[in-house]
Specification:
Its main location: membrane. By secondary structure, the protein is mainly alpha-helical. The chain has eleven helices and six strands. It has a domain of 176 residues.
Length: 291
């Protein structure tokens, strides 16, 4: 009975840990499908524009743009999850342990500076930034490039989707700011269940709302990590107001995104070798917290 209960709990824990990944995937493809529908069917609005040659080019450019962003989001997310940021398979060395090295009693090994143990991943992670619940993976030295690129294209994709959904907001508010239109924008689920709107109207309102909320959330994450990148910090170091590893803007870009930092954001398949090893870091400031 106890073993059955533990198996059920383990299975439930596994499902809950993977739920944000499935939800993210569903929302990304739902938004892409809705925007594709808007481009192919709803726009341009004028009948004579729909028959013009410019209409075909307009649709082609929009579709290529959005699927370029979708491809980068998916490929960066896949490489982020598949790239192991932990100390597994890394020779840490046993001689000359300097300042910043610690002993992890869980992994039973010495760990280098900026490395810390993740209790979700159950392993120490090199240059650990944080554990990303949306991907179920830690952000560390080897996969930070893919994480930041994924955020970049999610931000640009949501901005694009929000602009494309402006017509949806205008249609909902065409009769003015009424109680019905406000409720449809704020609580579309309740409007659908109560039978006040059709499933089609609910789908458009829900995805338009998701674009706005998602854009605000991703903007906060993206610009916060750009701020950390410029300062040469991790999220954990930001909590303690330490940035002793800052190498200047260009140095931070190279040591975070690789030697081809100016190109690697265009496509995750562009090789951008890291100048460091995730173990040894150049110290340019005090290691003591200022708070």
């Amino acid at each position: 009975m106890t073993s059955l209960r533990s198996k059920v709990l383990c299975q439930a824990e596994r499902i809950c840990s993977n739920l944000p990944v499935f939800l993210n995937t569903f929302l990304v493809f739902s938004i892409t499908g809705e925007v594709s529908y808007l481009v192919l069917v709803e726009a341009p609005l004028e009948a004579e524009q729909k028959k013009s040659e410019w209409s075909g080019w307009w649709k082609a450019i929009h579709l290529l743009s959005q699927y370029f962003m979708l491809g980068n989001i998916c490929w960066n997310a896949l490489l982020f999850v598949k790239t192991n940021p932990s100390i597994k398979g890394v020779f840490l060395g046993g001689d000359g342990l300097g300042q910043g090295w610690r002993y992890c009693y869980t992994c039973e090994t010495h760990t280098p500076p900026r490395c810390s143990h993740c209790f979700d991943c159950k392993v120490c992670v090199l240059r650990r930034d944080h554990h990303c619940v949306f991907f179920g993976q830690c952000v560390g030295f080897r996969n930070y490039r893919y994480f930041l690129s994924c955020l970049l294209f999610m931000w640009s994709g949501l901005l694009y989707a929000m602009v494309m959904n402006a017509e949806v907001f205008m249609v909902i508010l065409k009769e003015g700011v009424t109680l019905h239109s406000i409720l449809l924008l704020l609580v579309p689920w309740i409007m659908l269940v109560s039978g006040q709107v059709s499933a089609r109207a609910f789908a458009f309102a829900f995805i338009a709302d998701t674009c706005v909320v998602g854009f605000l959330l991703v903007s906060a994450f993206f610009f916060f990590h750009l701020f950390l990148l410029c300062r040469g910090q991790t999220t954990r170091e930001w909590y303690s107001s330490r940035h002793p590893y800052s190498l200047g803007l260009l140095g931070n870009l190279r040591h975070t995104l690789g030697l081809r930092w100016y190109l690697c954001w265009l496509c995750p398949l562009i090789p951008s070798p890291m100048p460091g090893d995730g173990i040894n870091f150049q110290v340019t400031g005090s290691l003591e917290p200022t708070r």
